[in-house]
Amino acid sequence: MLRLLNRKRATKDGAGHAGPAAHAVRMAAVSKIYNSGEGAVTALDGVSVELARGSFTAVMGPSGSGKSTFLHCAAGLDQPTSGEVWLGDEELSGASEARLTVIRRDRIGFVFQAYNLLGSLTAKQNITLPMLLADRTVDAAHLHEVASAVGIAGHLDRRPGQLSGGQQQRVAIARALITHPEAVFADEPTGALDTQTGRQVLGLLRHVVDTMGQTVLMVTHDPVIASFADSVVFLADGRLAGSLNNPSPAQIAERMTNMEER
């Protein structure tokens, strides 16, 4: 489900891989440098990775390793300094901001630590907001499917202030799924939740991958949370530092400990 590419294979002509459309997300030799001159900071350094459709990938690494920059570049929230980023069959790197706005609204779902719900709207209105902003008709059957999948169908008429933290995050996940996105990007999605509720939310993300074929890329610092994923990608100093497939929390924790001791 996850492929880490070396620099030779991540060439612009695409030789040696199945093509961007074969994967939900593809990053080829992506670098991101902030500032310039003596103040330049390399947040990502030649990162290449392919995420298969219907896969669940976690990204981990020490503080300052480039995890958030990785997610932001992969999701089109930030443009790389060099390299290519593809969402399905469309290249995000180099796209205009107007085009990226449309892509982020219509083809990408986002779930953050802060739920980012509008307090004046009901859960239903928060979930369907991306559709309304795109002037698209809300499919009642799909809304029911998504709301039921995340366990919030009985609370659609409530406002965020009437919901628990876990319920609010479920609304946020439903909002991320309502547009049939090609990929969902989650940044520390359980960071504001207690341990039990956090695991319930991760079980929910696991569920939408397994039953709806959704692709999820998640940044986390918690080995237990990361173990819900199919694969874990490790970053160190902006570079790929290996991966684990179907790892246990203990295996992830050991890898992280070894990285931090170097």
Short summary of the structure?
With 262 residues, the protein is α/β, with parallel strands linked by helices. It contains 8 helices and 11 strands.
Structure write-up:
The chain has eight helices and eleven strands. With 262 residues, it is α/β, with parallel strands linked by helices. It has a domain of 118 residues: P-loop containing nucleotide triphosphate hydrolases (Rossmann fold). It has a six-stranded mixed sheet, sandwiched between helices. A five-stranded antiparallel sheet has the order 1-3-2-5-6. Strand 5 and strand 6 form a beta hairpin.
The CATH topology of the domain at 53-77 and 96-107 and 181-261 is Rossmann fold
Radius of gyration from the alpha-carbon trace, in angstroms:
18 Å
Level-2 CATH architecture of the domain at 53-77 and 96-107 and 181-261: 3-Layer(aba) Sandwich
Helix-strand pattern: EEEEHEEHEHHHEHEHEEH
Number of helices: 8
Total number of beta strands: 11
Integer average pLDDT: 90
Biggest beta-sheet profile: 6 strands, mixed
Distance between the termini: 29 Å
Helix amount, in percent? 25-40%
Basic shape: globular
CATH class of the domain at 53-77 and 96-107 and 181-261: Alpha Beta
Strand order in the sheet with the most strands: 7-8-9-4-10-11
Estimate what percentage of residues fall within beta strands.
15-25%
- Helix and strand composition category: alpha/beta
The low-confidence parts are 6-20
Query: Could you name the CATH homologous superfamily of the domain at 53-77 and 96-107 and 181-261?
Result: P-loop containing nucleotide triphosphate hydrolases
